[in-house]
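Exercise: predict the structure of this protein bound to thymidine-5'-diphosphate.
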Amino acid sequence: MEKPSSSSLRQGSFAIPFEEQGQRDRSEFMSLTECRIIDLPKISDPRGNLTFIEGGRHVPFEIKRVYYLYDVPGGAERGGHAHKSLHQLIIALSGSFDVILDDGTQKKRFHLNRSYYGMYVCPMIWRELDNFSSASVCMVLASNLYDEADYYRDYGAFVQAQNL
Ligand code: TYD
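Solution:
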């Protein structure tokens, strides 16, 4: 069996080096401009493609939790909250869906439909997920364990906190 060629290996990257994260102002983590699509490595292979994610290299936070949404019925919406301090990377492992991000000032819709793209969402961003295709799987890497106290589930309270 033929080995994947080196040209078929795409190295993932993110714009802000991991080690620089701590030197930045907290408010910079709360804006939509911080959220972006991260291009993950993809090893193309006639036997099937492979993507990997390495902690400290491809994701701008330490990964402490992984969860996934599946069996999402057509027309369903997920999310509808913001996190106070959680960083997340959202990946359409299978199928597609939309992620709507809102920092209280600006709102943007992203369509995720490739398993080698990750949507990085910084803290203090209201997010909604909709337009799920059938059999889609949404995997989320998160910077911390589940903690209900980290959520804003009320949009008004979120906007108020953003303006503090
Ligand atoms: P929620 O974060 O609101 O889901 P989504 O944003 O995908 O719509 O979580 C839904 C429920 O699942 C809620 O009762 C909390 C629970 N939950 C956990 O127990 N652990 C987890 O890691 C997550 C993400 C949710």
